[in-house]
Amino acid sequence: MSNVYIDERLLDAAGLSDFPELYAYIKERYPKPIGELPQPVPIGDQTLQQQVKNNDDVIYASNEVFEPPVPNAITKLDLSSQLERQSFLASSGSDPQLIVYGDRITLTASYATTDVFPNGYLFKSYPQEARPKQGDQVIALVGTDASNTYNISCYIDQRGPFIISSRWLPSNTAFVLNITYYKNYEKSKKINYDANNDGKIDIMDT
Asked: CA 172, 175, 179 angle in degrees (round to 5)?
């Protein structure tokens, strides 16, 4: 066994002190001394071993809180300050809120008429980021203190929400809007809805 390298430290650490022949057989298959073993492969500025140690320190030994990234986090853009009401409207209650999320846009507003109100747009301009696009699904709810003789509805286009009434609304008529439109609704519906009930969501559901 003179041509076989035996390291006593490894022998003791492995618990093979009583089995030198077994250890010699192992060393014959890999005869290099410890000093000649391949060095750790660097990864960037650190070795793989150091990377593992750093991860362990974060998870087990340190006070750092590990927070994995949130995939597809929903964005939020507040455009409320860009809304300017028409001159024939007065604020009633809270200021309007226009919020753009990653998958939808919401608008809430409450106003009172300052004069006879014909059909018309609520705002002098409407932010480009909040303008509806083809394929969006719009849900517009309108509440008012006008009598039941008034048939009031609302739609929204590139210039913002437009109020339609079967008759001109009198002065001091209050109304509340709650509008939500879902961006790319048709595309989302095709991807997420099993229209033919076959247990699969695929092109056959479009």
From this structure: 155
